[in-house]
Amino acid sequence: GQNIDQPTEMTATEGAIVQINCTYQTSGFNGLFWYQQHAGEAPTFLSYNVLDGLEEKGRFSSFLSRSKGYSYLLLKELQMKDSASYLCAVMDSNYQLIWGAGTKLIIKP
Amino acid sequence: GAVVSQHPSRVICKSGTSVKIECRSLDFQATTMFWYRQFPKKSLMLMATSNEGSKATYEQGVEKDKFLINHASLTLSTLTVTSAHPEDSSFYICSARDTGTSGGSYNEQFFGPGTRLTVL
Description:
heterodimer, A: mainly beta, five-stranded antiparallel β-sheet, B: mainly beta, 11 strands, globular
């Protein structure tokens, strides 16, 4: 079966750094996405990785290791507005997104 | 980036009525649109894949006669919840995949803002 695992909830302090991990087992791989979702809103795109390595975009970076079926989202200089759920999703061989359950990130002052 | 709109953003209806939700890609053509529902504190659940000009593909456990999907044009897909019941109350989100030239080279899905459905 297809499976995406990520922690249910994480807590971090404003100004700090947090890493959200995601492991996956899917039938085929056409890229891994990270989305941010604030309560009551639709997901917004953060990053896309299809090759191994680190993609940096401002305060957010995403890493992928295809051989390990592993990715992480790194958030630096945390701000209160970063409090949200972070969804990991893998595009399988049929170009369908397989979604993780999301990680709720709580930022404390 | 590409923009997807959804209408209405919020709807409250009586049990037994039907509700139509529209999903539009505003600045790109989308041959494929996706309909999701999301319960509180849960992840997105794919309901169906909507293909322009053909029948939608429903996920297992989703009643196609209850959730009618029409994708009549390259920029519009509709989801109609027929004979709605309180258990249909949820957050419905559509997304569209840009298969054209406006930036979706890696098959990114662009999400609409969602529709909050409450059935009394």
